[in-house]
Write a structure and sequence with these properties.
A hairpin with a 2-residue loop joins β1 and β2. This protein has one domain. The longest helix has 25 residues. The protein is globular, with a radius of gyration of 18 Å. α1 runs antiparallel to α6. It has 9 helices and 2 strands; from the N terminus they run ααααααββααα. The chain is mainly α.
Length: 239
């Protein structure tokens, strides 16, 4: 199979515009002492603003790529049914248990590095349960996977399921870019590698749901549930 580097490179550019540009902007803002103190004391402001920026850039990209036909990039009901929604839900809950079950069983405390006040708890919970999935799925499945599926041909059979080459490449690209980006930002290799593996597992199953339904509903639902359960457990087990 010949590798088509041009659409892969273009998909990476679209991804870094939507996800990387907000990271750079907020890193620059944090260099100012007043913004750094604000984000440390009110992290929900940064969380909402960061994901609103991702949402806005992703929507602009989708509008431009689709020439206004947003349904081509997953913004429709597509072929969603209870079966695909069930798989999305099972993926979110299953991965949540894989990540957190040892902590739940041992009741290992989790550290919160910001003031645990009602405004922070409500702001963070609302963002994680309601909006993070929407913003991140717009770029990951809506922009990147759709673009690769539209510009690449071929399928890869995994057991008895046929995965589009674009779906598999999205899994790899998301895992590798997360690993490299987090290492550049000072993350510890073992922890970042494990996070990247979880991202790839999630993208594998949710990418297939998107491939088969051409709708972001299932992926957004799964993403919000996974992140929402994670933040809820954080507050339950906080030190």
């Amino acid at each position: 199979m010949r590798v088509e580097w041009i659409p892969i490179t273009e998909a990476l550019v679209l991804f870094f515009l939507a996800m990387g540009l907000p990271i750079v902007i907020f890193k620059l803002l944090e260099m100012r002492h007043d913004y750094m103190l604000l984000f440390q004391s009110r992290p929900w402001i940064k969380n909402w603003a960061f994901h609103l920026m991702i949402f806005a850039i992703s929507m602009l990209e989708i509008w431009w790529l689709s020439r206004g036909k947003l349904e081509k990039y997953g913004l429709s009901l597509g072929k969603v049914n209870l079966g695909w929604l069930g798989l999305s839900l099972a993926t979110a809950i299953g991965l949540f248990l894989v990540i957190y079950l040892p902590r739940i069983v041992t009741r290992t405390p989790m550290k919160i590095d910001y003031p645990l006040i009602p405004a922070n708890a409500l702001g963070m919970m609302s963002c994680e349960w309601l909006f993070v999935g929407l913003a991140e799925e717009l770029v990951e499945r809506g922009v990147v996977q759709t673009y690769l599926m539209e510009n690449l041909d071929g399928f890869i059979r995994v057991v008895r399921w046929d995965f589009h080459v674009g779906t598999i490449l999205t899994v790899v690209l998301l895992g590798v870019t997360h690993l490299l980006l987090m290492m550049l930002l000072g993350g510890k290799f073992r922890g970042v590698l494990l996070e990247s593996l979880y991202i790839m597992i999630f993208a594998f199953f949710i990418g297939y749901v998107y491939q088969q339904t051409n709708s972001l509903i299932g992926p957004i639902l799964a993403h919000n549930i996974l992140r929402g359960l994670g933040i809820t457990l954080l507050y339950i087990l906080h030190q």
